[in-house]
Amino acid sequence: MGSLDADTFRTLLRRQAATVTVVTAPGSPPAGFTATSFTSVSLRPPLVSFCLDRGSSSWPTLERAAHVGVHLLGEDQHEVARTFATSGIDRFAAHTGWRYGPHGVPLLDSPVAWLLCRVTERVTAGDHAIVLAEPLLGHYAHGAAPLLYHEGRYASVAPSAVVARQAA
């Protein structure tokens, strides 16, 4: 039995909803890209991961970066996600809402949450690299809803319904 072809694999995985993140790294120029592969890995010690195509324009910078910023985008940040997903542009010139943080890491304005991380390991996995990183600093916005990616479109979480319990 052979492996799934790339198009079928991509179609199947589009059924999974994922939070939209932008990963940034210091450099000249700085690098940044939109990712839906971000996840927590461990609580003790705290570790997160994300994946990046080793053929992407951001890879040379990420391959050398000692620190990165991970930004969980809010439901109103579609344009930020599109900007950092666009190839062939200066993503930081196109998106002006950012500043330099510790270790020279670009930090985006107003995400749902951000983490400043130290890269601990890079693992080659097919045409991608899995980057493991240790969060050093972080911040989150209270009550902010995340931006999701599902079926090839940006989406948001439906408001929670209040369910009343009846006394038995």
Automatic annotation (TrEMBL):
Keywords: Oxidoreductase
Gene3D superfamilies xref list: Electron Transport, Fmn-binding Protein, Chain A
Pfam families: Flavin_Reduct
Keyword Oxidoreductase among record annotations: yes
Gene Ontology molecular function, alphabetical: FMN binding; riboflavin reductase (NADPH) activity
A Gene Ontology biological process term: pyrimidine nucleobase catabolic process
Keyword hit for Cell inner membrane: no
Domain of life the protein comes from: Bacteria
Domain Flavin reductase like: 13-156
Protein name: Flavin-dependent reductase
Naturally occurring in which organism (per UniProt): Phytohabitans houttuyneae
